[in-house]
Amino acid sequence: MAETAEDAEDFKPDSDASTSATSKKRNAFSELMAPKPKSAKPESGSTPSYHGTKTKPKEKSWRGNLLPYIQNPESFPKAVIRVTKDTVLIQDQYPKATIHLLLLPRSPKHYDLHPKEAFKDEAFISMMKEEAASAAKLAASELSRKISRFSASDKARNEAMESLASEAEMPPGRDYLSEIRVGTHAHPSMRHLHVHIISRDMHSDCVKHRKHYNSFNTSFFVSLADQPLADGDDRLSTSFQNANLEKDFVCWRCGKEFRKDKFADLKRHLDVEFELWKKE
Amino acid sequence: MAETAEDAEDFKPDSDASTSATSKKRNAFSELMAPKPKSAKPESGSTPSYHGTKTKPKEKSWRGNLLPYIQNPESFPKAVIRVTKDTVLIQDQYPKATIHLLLLPRSPKHYDLHPKEAFKDEAFISMMKEEAASAAKLAASELSRKISRFSASDKARNEAMESLASEAEMPPGRDYLSEIRVGTHAHPSMRHLHVHIISRDMHSDCVKHRKHYNSFNTSFFVSLADQPLADGDDRLSTSFQNANLEKDFVCWRCGKEFRKDKFADLKRHLDVEFELWKKE
DNA sequence: GAATCATAAC
DNA sequence: GAATCATAAC
Ligand SMILES: Nc1ncnc2c1ncn2[C@@H]1O[C@H](COP(=O)(O)O)[C@@H](O)[C@H]1O
Ligand SMILES: Nc1ncnc2c1ncn2[C@@H]1O[C@H](COP(=O)(O)O)[C@@H](O)[C@H]1O
Ligand SMILES: [Zn+2]
Ligand SMILES: [Zn+2]
To answer: What range(s) does the Aprataxin C2HE/C2H2/C2HC zinc finger domain occupy (chains A, B) (predicted)?
Structure first.
């Protein structure tokens, strides 16, 4: 999420476009959540320059770090999950939950717009909702792959699976899709339009500070289903959103509250919740 | 480890004596590495007070947080692994590796001394080495319990185990004891004498900054076997030890170096090494 | 020792 | 956005 409304920015060169925050295996789809170690930089001059003139501060270059995935998805086989006519689906490089993907529209006409502007385009929001729905199904099945073995509600189904039962006679099993959330941050930090496809758990080493948690667990997180937002929607208020990031914490699972200066306590609580949640 | 040599300290009350940094199960021995959620404070006035007079700055009270384990081990059933005539063995509350225990001597005559002083006592160092050797075996067997299923060198042995072979016909298996290190920090932060019993991996969420890594992976970590140190041993030099904490990183497993301002890179590398190491 | 907060520099 | 470094306050 962006630092805090209307910030003036310096012109700074950027470092690497794609280092990873986690490790283990490598392999885009099958290893859905495993980030990557180093990897390529954007190939060409992907960041326009305005420096020299007085007013306009040059945009920080790291804000453009999602563009290479759009322009050159084949260069990021570990990160890119799917490319369709209209979108690129990637692994978030600093996943804030067990599953965390980003859906990027390929249309230059839209990818440079702020979500609230882009989603006014009816055909565009409609396309994005469809692509996101399909991405969410993918995320759900990957979540299932990761935690089904701990799941009580999947027990019967998994046993039927073992005994090679046919789909028709298999009990339904856990609804993983309901654990996947789809939406944008009210104040994105990364320039190119992206929709988060994320599991609810917030169990990740990459959740390191208050804003990480609150940006996904307050109204700062805007469901794609709510787009386009009506004029006057609270969520369009900058001060409202800045305040959301500074709020006390509320556990996504049980509603327990933690003072905003008790992030470490929240983290320990999330660890416990994660274990229980897997077992649901 | 201590902040940096000879520091002047303010008089401050302490908060909680025993919160935990990890989560999951609870159960001292069987769940060797699982820390604890809250737990008791020291019962009585365990911290002496000198305030009032001019020079001596009152010791920070958190430095006394290991004392309750010694004075009242039965109050910490999740943390305390073993109590013998001479020592208390506990889980480190912020484990810096897969296995991380602390061995605390019970003798008030020794537990307040700096390691370099205490270990001059021949009977004492001898006792501590024996207790530590036994604690290390315990740590090794717990390490085995945690990672043996990934281990190539344990494969044959584990299969023999499955088929209920007798110990005599079982292949030897991995030497976990060689993965356990035993020693003290050159400048401990916690007041009461404690010996670290720690697996080599440094794979832990609690390893959060440079000093965490370097205090266990430079000469700042003093093997118990090297005690008592000879007069004139480099490791008794404060400036030498302060410098150790500020050094570039060296991977414990492959020797790869990382600039000291690349801690995040080191962490990613340690994640990779951990996966490979488990599979040895 | 752990943890929160603020601040550069990428 | 991530990451390093310094600084209180416990
Ligand atoms: N180079 C990158 N590749 C992939 N994801 C990234 C990269 N840099 C940042 N991110 C993620 O992009 C998201 C941007 O968040 P926001 O702009 O607040 O919606 C965060 O979830 C980051 O973890
Ligand atoms: N309350 C506590 N209970 C158990 N271990 C602790 C506690 N506080 C700190 N520690 C550990 O004690 C060790 C002290 O390190 P040092 O004084 O540098 O040898 C570190 O490994 C800490 O994680
Ligand atoms: Zn909860
Ligand atoms: Zn290495």
So the answer is: 217-275
- CA nearest B179: which of B214, B203, B208? B203
pLDDT for position A44:
36
Cα separation, B157 vs B167, whole angstroms: 10
Q: Is the pLDDT of residue A16 over 80?
A: no
Q: Which two tokens stand for residue B257?
A: 């170096």
Residue of B94, B215, B217, B241 to test ligand 2 pocket, by largest number of atoms within 8 Å of CB: B94
Q: Provide the domain count of chain A.
A: 1
Domain assignment of residue B226, yes or no: yes
Which uninterrupted H or E stretch holds A196?
A: strand A195-199
- Determine the structural domain holding residue B92 and report its residue range: 60-278
Ligand nearest the Cα of residue A276 is 3
CB contact under 8 A, B275 and A24: yes
Sorted by sequence, the CB contacts under 8 Å of residue B22 that are 6+ apart come out as: A268, A271, B33, B34, B35, B95, B205, B206
Give the span between the Cα atoms of A142 and B22, in whole angstroms.
Answer: 26
Q: Which ligand has the shortest distance to the CA of B41? A: 2
| Residue A49 located in a structural domain | no
DSSP A123: H
Q: What is the pLDDT of residue B22?
A: 60
Domain-located, residue B197: yes
- CATH number of the domain residue A258 falls in: 3.30.428.10
- pLDDT per position as a tens digit, A202-238: 999 999 999 999 999 999 999 999 999 999 999 999 9
pTM of the model: 0.90
ipTM of the complex as predicted = 0.90
Alpha helices in B76-219 (DSSP H): 108-111, 115-118, 122-147, 155-162, 210-217
